[in-house]
Amino acid sequence: MTQPPTDPTAPTVPTSPTSPTSPTVPPSAMASMLLVVLIWGLNFTVTKLSFREFPPLAFTAVRFGLSSVCILFVLQWSEGTIRVPRGAWVPLTILGVIGNSAYQILFVLGLERTTATNSSLVLASMPALVAAIGAASGTEHLSANGKRGLILASIGVVLVVAAQGVHFSARTLSGDALTVVAVVCWAVFTVGIRRLDFPMSPLAITAWTTVLGTPVLVAAGLPDMLTMDWSATSVGGWGGIAYSGLLSLIFAYVLWNRSIRVVGSNRTAIFACVTPLVATGAAVALLGERPVPAQLFGGALVLAGVLLSQRRAMPGAPPAGPSPA
Q: In sequence order, what DSSP letters do the residues of 113-149 get, joined into one string?
């Protein structure tokens, strides 16, 4: 959960009467959205740095174990109940395994092998892929702009993956490939969430798909957790767990979910496209990554494709939710 910036985690989200069409965005909402984008953008680098002390699967297991407990407390505090409607357990479990277990395993293993820049730019293509899968499944109509945006974003992803310059290797290519498959898992999860027909809020759906996907992540990380030297973990390592598990997964989601009601769904793509820019800047400054021009051009195509595919979004369309990063 380390989470595009464009995960529509529920079929509907109440919006304030003035939000989608308001000509101006309140400064507080703008600040909140930018803070979320900053948190998500930095999360790629924080996670990458944490891998110096935690094996990727162990990191994910601890992170999700912590966030699962916390998000249920947030749900209880926010809504007064954590009850799951009758008949919802099976679809929520399936979606939790696809959107959290499978996605997270692929994401962290991919991030371990490739650069934070590549990972963030590939993930930025998610809205266009969600639109394509939604159209294929009959969930939504793919407009002409949506088709053009999907083509642009696809070309951009190919450029990002192929334009490795002197840093090209089988390992980075495998990392990019894992990230692409992770994007597909998250897109399928997102479309599946939109098809749910249960009286559950976006927060409740997010909480339970997170909780139900966690056992698989714990099982996957258990071998590394049993063999790693926990006494050697520094304060910085635990800080990475706290940042990624609490700030990125819990705090940022709650802030995003509240702010989106004011900003409106039509503007979310703009904010979403800032996340990979923050991620790239952080990777350059803190990890010493040096993306080549072709990668940056590919990233620009991805962002242009996303914006184009979202251009004719309806005011009542489901807003974007937390980043899968």
A: HS-HHHHHHHHTTHHHHHHHHHHHHTSS---HHHHHH
What average pLDDT values come out for the chain (325 residues) when binned by 10 residues? 38 36 64 86 93 95 95 93 94 95 94 85 75 72 72 73 54 83 89 86 91 96 95 94 92 77 58 76 86 77 73 45 53
Handedness of CA 94, 96, 97, 103 (dihedral sign): positive
Helical residues (DSSP H) of 163-283, grouped into ranges? 170-194, 202-227, 235-242, 252-263, 268-282
Query: Are 272 and 7 a contacting pair, CB within 8 Å?
Result: no
- What is the spatial distance between Cα 265 and Cα 284, in angstroms, rounded to a whole number? 31
- Asked whether 7 and 256 are in contact (CB, 8 A), the reply is no
Considering only CA atoms, give the Rg of the chain: 18
pTM of the predicted model as reported, rounded to 2 decimal places? 0.79
Count the alpha carbons within 13 Å of 77 in the hemisphere toward its beta carbon: 7
- Spell out the domain ranges in the chain: 27-309
The residue with tokens 């990777």 is 283
Alpha carbon 95 to its chain centroid, in Å, reads: 15
Separation between Cα atoms, residue 287 and residue 117, nearest integer Å: 10
Name the DSSP class of 55: -
Residue 220: how many CB atoms within 10 A of its CB? 20
Cα(293)–Cα(178) distance, integer angstroms = 23
Whole-number Å distance between alpha carbons of 194 and 9: 7
